[in-house]
Amino acid sequence: MAQRILKLLRSDELRRSKSDKLIANYIERNLAEIPFETARSIATRLEVSPMTVGRYLRRMGFDGLDELKHALRRDGSNNPAWQVKGSVGRLREDNREGKLLAGLIQQQVDNLGMIYELTTAPEWQQAIEALIAASEVYVAAYQNVRGIAQYFASQLSYTRSRVQFVDGLNGTYAELLDGSVEGRVLFLHDVRRFAAKARPLAEEARRAGVKVILFTDEFCPWAPEVSDICLVVPGSHGPLWDGAATTVAVMDLLLSNIIVVLGDDVGERVAQLTRLQNVFGDFED
After folding, report:
1. Angle of helix 50-60 relative to helix 2-9, nearest 10 degrees?
2. CA 47 and chain centroid, separation
3. Of 44, 71, 96, 127, whose CB neighbour count within 10 A is largest?
4. pLDDT tens readout for residues 166-176
5. Distance (Å, whole) CA 144 – CA 198
6. What integer best gives the mean pLDDT of the chain?
7. Given pLDDT bands bounded at 50, 70 and 90, which one contains residue 285?
8. DSSP state of 179
9. Which of these, 62, 59, 84, lies nearest to 1 by C-alpha position?
10. Distance between CA atoms of 46 and 25, rounded to whole angstroms?
């Protein structure tokens, strides 16, 4: 049953509109949480109406969310969601008692568990290979994830040469899009609310022959349309603001995986950069 539901969610028939894609992506990536959801809670998270969610479920063949829950319960052993197991009794007890921080920590634990599933997906290995093989890597991001992407670009530059963060302040992104160098890769990081420049940049990059790795969240309906490789993480569901723990964890794992693959080459590059830092007095002895 779960496989049938996944096939439905991925079908063109149920992914026609923007709201279709949002709902399909959300249900697919949160099957383990569906028993705790309502049509209204899903609608609130996705910023659509409960009627839109209801109509979508009917198109799936279910008369409301309860029927979908029942179908998932019948085949619970095959639920594809991956969750962290372990002795977290106190955390869960505090969470049940409504303690805010416990709930936020539990969300982070759940999100980190989902990252494992991402690292086993084909897209993960494709991203690693692309970031290593690229002639040049350009990293771009906006708004509140800009600083995290700059951190990633800085760390990635320790593993390989020709890595640059692009801010677009020149109004053209010509350094990325001028076509003067083959084999370029754009690592684009954007999450809801999506920046107005993100999708056009990805489209222009592909038009210029640049391979696009899009790192985004489950709320992005256009991700597969504008990227060559798409890495999708859980979106923010907290009552406050977006947290960075999941994003930083994914980026650190990407870097670690690259270091493992490159091996001694990274050590030689770090030694060279460390010597230069010493020459220019960047760090205290």
Report:
1. 120
2. 19
3. 127
4. 999 999 999 99
5. 14
6. 84
7. low
8. -
9. 62
10. 10
Cα gap 269→45, rounded to integer Å: 44
Using CA atoms, how far residue 255 sits from 64, 261, 271, in Å, is 43, 10, 17
pLDDT digits (tens, 9 = 90+) for 25-78: 988 888 767 877 788 888 888 989 999 999 999 999 999 888 888 787 665 444
CB-based burial, 60-86: b 16+ in 10 Å, e otherwise:
bebeebeebeebbeeeeeeeebeeeee
159-162 contacts, C-beta under 8 A, 24 or more apart: 159/255, 159/258, 159/259, 159/262, 159/266, 159/269, 160/131, 160/132, 160/258, 160/262, 160/269, 161/269, 162/134, 162/135, 162/136, 162/137
Hey, what are 94's tokens? 């505090």
| Amino acid at residue number 156 | L
Q: Are 197 and 214 in contact (CB under 8 A)?
A: no
Indicate the SS3 state at residue 231. strand
Residues 6+ apart with CB under 8 A from 261: 128, 132
In whole angstroms, give the CA distance from residue 131 to residue 258.
Answer: 8
Contact 22, 46 (CB under 8 A): yes
Residues present in the chain in total: 285
Of 133, 142, 150, 173, give the one whose Cα is nearest residue 251.
150
Q: Which amino acid appears at position 43 of this protein?
A: A
pTM over 0.70: no
